[in-house]
Design a protein that fits this description.
This is Acyl-CoA reductase. The chain is of the alpha/beta class. It has helices spanning 3-18, 23-36, 42-55, 59-68, 93-101, 116-128, 154-163, 187-198, 220-225, 236-251, 285-294, 332-337, and strands spanning 79-83, 105-109, 136-138, 147-151, 169-172, 176-180, 208-214, 257-258, 263-266, 276-282, 299-304, 312-313. The protein contains twelve helices and twelve strands. Helix 1 (3-18) crosses helix 6 (116-128). The radius of gyration is 21 Å and the shape is globular.
Length: 339
């Protein structure tokens, strides 16, 4: 296949997802995904698929991506193993897209938490262009891989490093995202921050789990601005986490704030439990910079009003990465071109 064929095929997948005539099919996909993973609600599945269609699979975006990254026809395709995560719907799609666009063969090991939806997406690609079957293989074992892209926890990353030490690899560990507040944010900006916190129930590495706030900051306006997210407590798994974490805080007499669906706790740690968001006070810009730099290796992205930081996004944009927003700041295409 030529590059133009890859671009056309993926853009047609994007068109399929966004076509209202296929709404019933997408709904059925979401039901199947939810049956496998209760966190994959219909809204979350649609959000993930629509973002992929709009920000990855637009024909012009794909063509610009290919040109910007100097992707050329590959006369010597390699087999690239992809160990996919399953924390949010089809989170491994970007890796799959990069491997195929680079002209290599993707050996995909699906997550047990996201095997149904990803498989449906792959089969739809095959429906659009059967020739893609030569470039995407769903596999349980990746022994034949010439290179590896693996995403997992800090613990599983150690195993990945050991098993794949002899071949080129990208190994991704736990990361999370943070927000910087100044106290000057509008209610709309704070409401958008609510999206960064709650979309996908906070399970993604791009979800905000930590707030950096100026000394003396009060959370009244913040809580009022995110009130529309109160219905998240209807979801039984989220509410179970909220009840449990609230009980722990109360039993341990840990100071915290509570609006009935989000617990705010002062904590230096970046990663927080589901239904909990950590916060930390900063004295001035220099102190804030020190705090962020001390956690740089664990921060996926930063949301803020002025976007004065590297890998920063406006409020509400954390879960809508663009095609060039590579995970962990590692350019997957450059990696693939050099294997």
């Amino acid at each position: 296949m030529q590059l133009k064929d890859f671009i056309l095929t993926f853009s047609q997948l994007g068109g399929f997802i966004l076509d209202e005539n296929n709404a019933d099919t997408i709904k059925q996909w979401s039901y199947s995904a939810r049956n496998e993973n209760a966190w994959f609600t219909e809204d979350n599945v649609k959000l993930s698929l629509n973002n992929i269609a709009r920000y990855y699979l637009d024909k012009e975006i794909l063509a610009n991506f290919v040109e910007a990254n100097s992707i050329e026809a590959n006369p010597n395709p390699k087999k690239v193993g992809i160990v996919m995560a399953g924390n949010i719907p089809v989170v491994g799609f970007h890796d799959l897209l990069c491997v195929v666009l680079s002209g290599n063969i993707a050996l995909v090991k699906l997550s047990s938490s996201d095997s149904v939806l990803m498989r449906l997406l792959i089969f739809q690609l095959f429906e659009i262009n059967p020739a893609l079957r030569d470039y995407i293989k769903v596999a349980d074992k990746l022994n034949e891989a010439d290179a590896m892209i693996a995403t997992g926890s800090d613990n599983t990353a150690k195993h990945f490093e050991y098993y794949f030490t002899k071949i080129p690899h990208i190994i991704r560990k736990n990361r999370t995202s943070v927000a910087v507040l100044t106290g000057e944010e509008s209610r709309t900006e704070l409401a958008n921050l609510g999206n960064d916190i709650f979309q996908y129930f906070g399970l993604g590495c791009r979800n905000v789990s930590k707030l950096f706030v100026p000394k003396g900051y009060t959370f009244d306006k913040f809580y009022e601005s995110i009130e529309y997210w109160s219905t998240i407590s209807i979801h039984h798994k989220y509410n179970n986490n909220y009840d449990y974490n609230k009980s722990v805080l109360l039993v341990n007499k840990t100071p915290h704030f509570d609006n009935g669906f989000l617990l705010l706790k002062e904590d230096a740690a970046l990663v927080s439990a589901i239904s909990v968001c950590h916060f930390e006070y900063y004295e001035n810009k220099e102190h804030l910079q020190q705090l962020i730099e001390s956690h740089q290796e664990k921060i996926q992205c930063i949301v803020s009003k002025d976007r004065n930081f590297e890998n920063s996004f406006a409020f509400g944009e954390a879960q809508a990465p663009k095609l060039n927003d590579f995970a962990d700041g590692v350019n997957t295409i450059e990696f693939l071109k050099n294997i």
